[in-house]
Amino acid sequence: MLTYEVVFAAALVISAFLALHLDETIYAIISFGAALTLLSGLYFLMDAPFAAVFQLIVTVGAVAVFFLASEMLTPKKGSSQKTRDKILGLLVASALAVVPIISDLHVEVFSNSHDYSFAMALWEYRALDVIAQSIVVLTLALGIVMVLRGKGGK
Amino acid sequence: MEYIILSLILLAIGIYGLVTKRNLLKVLMSIELIAAAASMNFVVFGSMIGDQLGQVFFILALSVDTAVTSVIIALVLIAYREHRIIDVWELSKLKKS
């Protein structure tokens, strides 16, 4: 049966493959953004709204950064990819998407549920992880700033 | 089980990009896809046991993944600024010279 989950999963596979296969960077980035947005939709269908929203936020940031980077780094030239190559890529992506279509995507819920709420899981069970990870992310951000400034000063 | 197969397909696509693509931005997209495939399992298994712990792990994993992506973008920018190339093979040739 064609459910939303199957449609999202098939579209996710196709757009993820095209993101890597297409030579034109702008189309590849649009396809990549579509793949991550569809992944966010899948999370929402899996009854994981926090993961869905977080994935969507990261997707927006990633796509913006990719657009900027491609605009800065990619030389402006016409497409050299042949139509035959594009069609071949689409066919391979469609072949890969057959697997999620024929499999009935659903999440089996086991009975040994702990039933933690999100806030409880985040702050009571993983609070130390969150704090440690904040320090790691902050250190990485400072490192990036130092590297870029150091290289820029030369 | 079906979601794990989907995750494996995404992982395979990411590895395909990592192996065949020379553009550093495409390599970065491949790494993002591999990370998305891996962190998807947190949400799937979290949904299987019916609690929110999987989402918490997913958020922790994705924030580190985003930080790693920003590091790679910084390296790409430095490579372009220093050598005017974003081709992985060309960059590896610089090591020999």
Word description of this protein:
The complex is a heterodimer of chains A (154) and B (97). Chain A has 154 residues and is mainly alpha-helical. Chain A is built from six helices and no strands. Chain A has helices at 4-21, 25-45, 49-73, 83-102, 118-125, 127-153. The longest helix of chain A is centred in the last third of the chain and has 27 residues, at 127-153. Chain A is flat and about 55 Å long. The N and C termini of chain A lie far apart (61 Å). Chain B is mainly α. Chain B has four helices and no strands. Chain B has helices at 2-20, 24-48, 53-83, 88-96. The model of chain B has no long low-confidence stretch (mean pLDDT 84). Classes of the chains: A mainly alpha (154), B mainly alpha (97).
SSE order and pairing:
The complex is a heterodimer of chains A (154) and B (97).
Chain A: H1 4-21, H2 25-45, H3 49-73, H4 83-102, H5 118-125, H6 127-153
Chain B: H1 2-20, H2 24-48, H3 53-83, H4 88-96
Helix pairs in contact in B: 1-2, 2-3
The proportion of residues forming helix of chain B, as a percent range, comes to: over 70%
Looking at how many chains there are and whether they match, the oligomeric state comes to heterodimer
Biggest sheet overview of chain A? none
- Structural class category of chain A: mainly alpha
Gyration radius of chain B, rounded: 16 Å
As a whole number of angstroms, the C-alpha radius of gyration of chain A is 20 Å
Tell me, rounded to a whole number, the average pLDDT of chain B.
84
CA-CA gap between termini of chain A: 61 Å
Run of helices and strands of chain B: HHHH
Parts with pLDDT < 50 across at least 5 consecutive residues of chain A: none
Helix content of chain A: over 70%
Spans where pLDDT lies below 50 across 5 or more residues of chain B: none
- Tally of helical runs of chain A: 6
Helices and strands of chain B: which structural class? mainly alpha
Biggest interface goes to:
A-B, 68 and 59 residues
| Tally of DSSP helical segments of chain B | 4
What is the approximate shape of chain A?
A: flat
- Approximate strand percentage of chain A: under 5%
Number of strands of chain B: 0
The average pLDDT of chain A is 80
Major sheet attributes of chain B: none
